[in-house]
Specification:
Number of domains: 2
Radius of gyration: 21 Å
Oligomer: single chain
Bound molecules: adenosine-5'-diphosphate, 2-acetamido-2-deoxy-1-O-phosphono-alpha-D-glucopyranose, magnesium ion
Strand content: 5-15%
Number of helices: 11
CATH architecture of the largest domain: Alpha-Beta Complex
Helix content: 40-55%
Largest sheet: 6 strands, antiparallel
CATH superfamily of the largest domain: Aminoglycoside phosphotransferase (APH), C-terminal lobe
Number of strands: 10
CATH class of the largest domain: Alpha Beta
Length: about 375
């Protein structure tokens, strides 16, 4: 990384860290922020994670960080009986800047935050085993349960209408009107638009009736990809991470977003749509793990809403990736020019697979509630 390493290490100097960091490496596979792992040259003492927050997407970094502090402190309160060392392994520790701020703003207007690195952990993008899916469900269920007694009104809405189907459709329509680089007329885009059009009204109606009108607003994670759980050496969940989007919402969103990433045998951006098939045993395992932890506080209507979340999230993700492609990729990081189109096609294929298995998935969910 050369000069970039020096730049990262210089930025790290602005934070209240212990020891002299001499190594910096890119870390993680997120689509929004840039993450660097920092270590001392002998790899002794604490290590850290420095993240550049994408301020194009998060215009108010102060509010985002205030949410994170509120949530971390609440979770730490729930873990306090375990002692400080365990608390720091199971929850995120935010490191303030030397002048006591929650983030550092560099000369270029970039915002940086520092977290304590939780050692001997890893995250995985693709789930293979039912045991992992069960444990993942339990981890996100426990996360929601631990936050269920925190007043949702205390959180800032850092990304308004984040999982709102009307908003996502409005954005797609705006992109189609502007179509800055002529991508809207491509045959693959046109095919997807036709498929979206044929589902739009049913999806809107299910969103309103079975999720918004029937469920209470709670504090949810809003980005429950499986790689947002840190696993320990034995692949057991240790800590839920990536708290940028924790906001009031409906539990069906977290359930659907997790299933979107767990049930897919292919990658989120798989160019070979034949790989995008369902691993149904993982669905059952996730549902059982989730309900084991969350069943105690969910209403009956919320439990019913989970099924609809499974369809809403891949649909909205198709809209989001397609919108970004049509707008010439301002939002998600891309590795090649058609990346967002490939992502949209893969998410849509996932949706069609879920549609083909609707009856089976519904009976599995009913079974998971009873068991
Ligand atoms: P992104 O928004 O880019 O997904 P994350 O906060 O999820 O950012 O971090 C990226 C990756 O860094 C995670 O998938 C995880 O592997 C790792 N990670 C994040 N926070 C920690 C932490 N506190 N300790 C150890 N690893 C972490
Ligand atoms: C983004 O940053 P990352 O990769 O965890 C996005 C999520 C999407 C996801 C799709 C703030 O999450 O909403 O579901 O990509 N985060 C934001 O992979 O938009
Ligand atoms: Mg992440």
């Amino acid at each position: 990384m050369g000069n970039n390493t020096d730049r990262i290490l210089n930025i790290a100097e602005h934070f209240q860290i212990a020891g002299k960091m001499e190594r910096a490496h890119r870390f993680g596979s997120g689509h929004i922020n840039d993450t660097y792992r920092l270590d001392t040259s002998e790899m002794v003492g604490p290590s850290y994670l420095l993240q550049r927050i994408n301020h194009f997407i998060f215009p108010d970094v102060q509010k985002l960080m205030e949410n994170m502090v509120l949530v971390c402190e609440h979770l730490q309160g729930k873990l306090a009986h375990l002692g400080q060392e365990e608390v720091q392994k199971k929850s995120l520790t935010i490191i303030p800047t030397k002048d006591g701020k929650l983030y550092y703003e560099d000369e270029g207007g970039n915002s940086w935050r520092m977290l304590q690195l939780i050692k001997d952990t890893h995250s995985v993008d693709t789930v293979k085993l039912s045991e992992q899916a069960y444990a993942g469900g339990a981890a996100f269920g426990e996360f929601q349960r631990q936050l269920s007694d925190l007043d949702a009104r205390k959180l800032h809405i850092v990304l308004p209408r984040f999982h709102d189907i009307d908003y996502r459709l409005e954005n797609l329509n705006k992109a189609l009107l502007a179509h800055p680089v002529g991508r809207a007329t491509e045959p693959d885009v046109q095919r997807l638009l036709k498929e979206i059009g044929s589902r739009e009204s049913v999806m809107r109606q299910e969103f309103q009736e079975y999720i918004v009108e029937s469920s209470p607003l709670r504090i949810i994670h809003n980005d429950t990809k499986f790689n947002n759980i840190l696993l320990d050496k034995n692949d057991e969940p240790q800590c839920v991470i990536d708290l940028d989007t924790v906001m009031p919402g409906f539990v069906a969103f977290d359930f659907g977003d997790a299933i979107r990433t767990i049930i897919n045998r292919g990658q989120e951006d798989d160019p070979d749509l034949n790989h995008v098939t369902l691993n149904i045993p993982l669905f059952e395992a996730y549902a059982q793990g989730y309900l084991q932890e969350a069943g105690s506080f969910l209403t009956d209507a919320e439990i019913d809403s989970l099924f609809y979340g499974v369809y809403q999230l891949p649909f909205m993700q198709t809209l989001r990736f397609l919108t970004d492609y049509i707008e010439n990729d301002p939002y998600y990081k891309i590795q090649y020019p058609t990346h967002n189109l490939i992502r949209a096609k893969a998410q849509f294929k996932l949706l069609t697979e879920l549609e083909l298995n609707r009856t089976e998935l519904h009976s599995i969910l009913l079974r998971s509630v009873i068991s």
